[in-house]
Amino acid sequence: MIDSRPVLVNTRLDDPTADHVIGELYRRGVPVVRLDTGRPEGVTLTVGAGAGTDWRGTLRTPTRQVDPQEVGAVYHRRPSPPMTPPRTNGISPPPRSGTA
Known about the structure:
alpha/beta, 3-stranded antiparallel β-sheet, single chain
């Protein structure tokens, strides 16, 4: 019996090895959510806590949406290196108004 819970694939968008794995998962009817945590443009994670240990959330990519509690497996292969915020001459930009 095939597990129908989605597999979260964390890799670069141009990873041909992951493409083969994802293709096989699709062939087997397993849903896939692919993202690159090193390039998080268009990816959001919303979480909320309830009473006790209950929590809920949604992970959204530009093409998919999944409840993190429903993820059956994570394939962490080769995400891009994390992006760093731009700096000016080694000095961080001043804080925005309304912040300390």
